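The pair is quoted verbatim as follows:
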Amino acid sequence: MKKSLLLILTFIFIGTCSFCTHSKEHRMPSDLEGETEAIAVGERPLFKDFMGINGHFTFKPELYNQVCRLVRNYHDMNWDVTKPGDPYQPPYAVNGVNWKSDVYGPWKENGFETDICLQLSSFSAENENYKELWEGKEDWAYSYGKALASYFGPSGDEKLATSMEIGNEPGVKFDATLYKSIFKNMAQGIRDGDSKIKILTPYVTASKPDDYSQDLKGIYADSDILPLYDVINLHSYASVQPNEGPFNRSFPEDSTIDYLKDINKTIRWRNENAPDKEIWITEFGYDACTPEAMKQRSGWGLELDWQGNTDEQQAQYLVRSFLAFAELGVERAYLYFYNDDDEPFFHSSSGITRHFEPKMSFWALKQLYEILGEYRLKRVVKKIEQDIYVYEFEHGSDSDRLIWVAWSPTGTKTHKKDGYQPRTIKTTLTELPGPPITIFGMATSENDPPKPEWQQMKENAISLTIGESPTYLVFNNKKN
């Protein structure tokens, strides 16, 4: 069961009630093995242009603009039209939603840049008659894409979106020849509607495709499709190996899982076959419900022993995922999800708020955004597996302003979290760019963040206690 099933309930509710340039350097980091020290990386985006979140109709932009400025919306085609071929006049939808006044307008007013994910919804392979629905609709796919881009795109009067995805997770269930026709015509319509809009593939993989992912090496390598998209679109979840359970997850740096390795495979394919394309991760995340909710598990969640993370682990692993993605060189990463209702099941407690009240992850991401928003990753200072990671970030307009982020790249798998003791070590950091102005730990509430123990050893060295929550060291080497 995928998160798309969770969204269906929201779609039904709304329908009833309505009536968030690729790296200049193509160096590939190792697949998380051994020790690495002091490696410069290619140019990376500022964190404010990198951190994103997945939203939907109930998204509260005035709340979530504290954690990022990029948002991705699940825009269902069957909200716009009853079936392919029907006339469409944006921003109006057949279910009564006005995309401008109800969704994209308020998001823009609160500082968000929007990526529109066009979901096939009931026009997908889940509908046994989907091929008949799309038969002879090539011209309509073109005109629908053009209408969307002309109205919502950055060159028009409204300027409500800067990118569009043609499909979310059509996967291998959708006939490849038919999907290529839809993609080709809709993408051309979007191009002709607004040439400034970035076009994304649906969720693709350089590994083995499945019911939710398409083969990156399939139609997206074809000469007639390559010019029609700008971004390779990944969904990345830190899933354990199949023999450890279908729903369990692990910490980001775990070398036994494919979380970061699959992204590396995609980067390699991009570098060899489509070097002008960006790579975005439009979904990643971790579940975290309350102990009280866990007692209410039922159905598959109970039978297959679904386990989520603790609230603190969710916060740690989301922050560390953003840091890992920055090192790999992807251009954007959108976390899943904005809010949940504390439901004890897969993808059902992935929000950074619970009933729209901040979880620990909300405060940790708010802190990350505020601290690193104007900074970009400059180099990997130290990277020793199962021991310590240290990354250096540089201010986008002032090279004298540096921040180091240090943490223990350890953790636990969800089905092994009971009784787990997080790792804490005392370490010595040398060759610092100067004496730190301040050092503080990861925030988990609106109160002041924790202050780790540290001691100046000599001019450019300190001893510091770190753990699985990232620690921030702030430097300013400007000469007075």
In short: Residues 378-476 form a domain with the Immunoglobulin-like fold (CATH 2.60.40).
